Here is the input.
Amino acid sequence: MEAFDRVMKARAKGRPTGLSFINHIFDDFLEMHGDRRFGDDSAVVAGIARLNGMPVTVIALERGTDTKDKIMRNFGMAHPEGYRKALRQMKLAEKFHRPVICFVDTSGAYCGIAAEERGQGLAIAENLMEMMALKTPVLSILIGEGGSGGALGLAVADEVWMLENAVYSVISPEGCASILWKDPAKVREAAACLKLTAQDLLELDVIERIIEEPSDDFEEVFATLRRDIFTTVSQNKQLPVEALLEKRYNRFRKIGVPK
Amino acid sequence: MGVLPKNLFKKPNNPLENYDKTKTYSPDIPSEMCIPCPSCKAILLNGDLNENGHVCPKCGFHFRINPRQRINIIADEGSFQEYDAALRSRNVIDFPNYDKKLKHALLESSAKEAVVCGRAKIGGYDCCMFVMDPYFMMGSMGTVVGEKITRLFEYATEQSLPVIGFTVSGGARMQEGILSLMQMAKTSGAVKRHSDAGNLYAVVLTDPTTGGVTASFAMEADVTIAEPGALIGFAGPRVIEQTIRQKLPNGFQRSEFLYEKGFVDVILKRTEQKGYLTTLLSLHQKEAN
Ligand SMILES: [Zn+2]
Here is the structure.
C-alpha cells in the first residue's frame, strides 16, 4: 500500500475516533471539562477511567462522528484551551499517581485568529515541557492522523505506538506538495517523501510499536490495546520516578543525533 | 521586504570569532553605499546602519541580520566562543532535492546551519547564547538545529549558566520529516531540565518566529523579549487566511499584539537589548556558597 493510501485510511469516514477507543477500552469513564483559564474545548476529551481495575487518566483528540458532532468538535483541531485542559488533567494524574494514556487523531492544532490570540504556540510548548517531566507513566497512541505540533502536544511519552493505518507527519502531504512543487495535486509524491507511515516511523526509531489492524471492525484492536496498555503502564509504574523520566528524556534525546 | 536588494546582508566572509569590529558589519557592502529603508523609504548610508544596530535611524525599522551581526551587537567584544560549529545536516530521510537546498543555503549564507551556539559574556556576565539565522533555510529547525540547541542547554545546565537566545524561524524543516518534529520535544526536554535546575533562560523573539520553534523553545523562556514589529505566531498568516478565508487585521501576530495579549514581557529595540540583558543577568547572579 502506498503512503498516501494510508493517509486516506487514517482519515476515512467511519474509522473509530478517540471517544470510541476510550469507550471500548476503559470502564467507569468520567469526563472532565474545561481548562480553568478560558473555556472548554470539545476537540479534546479528557477524564478519569479504570483499566483492568487500575485508575488511569485518558485524553483523546476527538474529530467527531456525524456532521453536527464534527462541527462541535472543530474536526479534532484543538485550540490552546484544549491543550491546557489536557495538561490540567495530566497534572492531576501526577498528583494521584495515575498513568496517562493519550489517543492522538488530528489534522493539526487549529490555525485561526482566536487560537493565535490565546497562545497556540505557547500552549503546545508548555505541554512538551511539562509532559517531558511528568512524574507518572505516559503512553501515547496515534490512532488516525498525527498532524504536526498539534499531535506532538499530546505525544511526549515513555512509549509512542501507532495503529497500522495511522500516519504521523511534520506537515500534511497537501501542505508539503503546495510548498515543494507549488502543486497541491502532487499529494501522493509528497506523502511518500515525508516518511509518515507507521512502518516508516518504526524504522526511524520514532515509535516503539505498530498495532495491527487485522480487520475493519476494531474489536481485535481494542482487545490488544486493553491488554497491552495495561501491561506497559503497569511496568512503567514500577520504575522509580527518576528512572522513568531519564528513560523518557533519552527516548527523545537520541532522535536525530548527527552521525 | 519591498525594495531591499535581496542579497544585501547575506555574505559574511569572516569567521565569527575573529571578526574585527572596526570594519563594517557586511564586508561586501562598503559603508558609503546607500540602502533604502523598506519601511519609510529613507535612503540610508550602510555605515550609519551599522552604527545603529541595523535599525533605521529615521523610522526604527529593524533590518534582518545574521548571527555574526547579532553577536557583534550583543556580546562583549571577542568574548564569543562557538560550540558545535562543525555539525552539518544530512539528508536523513532522502528527501528530494534536500542536498541541493543545503548546498545552496551554505553558499547563500556562508553559515553551516540555521543556528549558531556558544558561550559569551554580555556586559561582563557569563552566559550561553544561541542565535538563529534567517538566511539559512529561513531559520528552519531540522535535526542539527535541534541537536545544537539541546547540547547548549545541557551544557548550560552542567555549568549552571544562563541561556540568552535569539529566535528567527519559519518553523520545522519539512525536508527532515518527522525527525524535525521530534526536535521540538527534544529541545523542550533540555530547556525543562535547565529550568528545573534554577537557571535563567531569556529569549529575544525576532522577525519572524513561527511554527515549530514558536511551539517549543521560543515560548519556554523565563523572560520573553520581542523586537518591535516582529511577526510571532504558531501558524503563518497565509495559512490562517486560507483556513478562515478572510483577511487578517492589521498588526495581527506582531510583537505589539503579543505584548497586548500578555505573551511578551517587554518589547526592546535592538539598540536597547544589550543594556537590558546585562541588568537581567546581574539580577540573576547566583550567590556564591
Ligand atoms: Zn525607515
Chain B has two domains: 18-63, 65-283. Chain B touches chain A through 57 residues (CB under 8 Å).
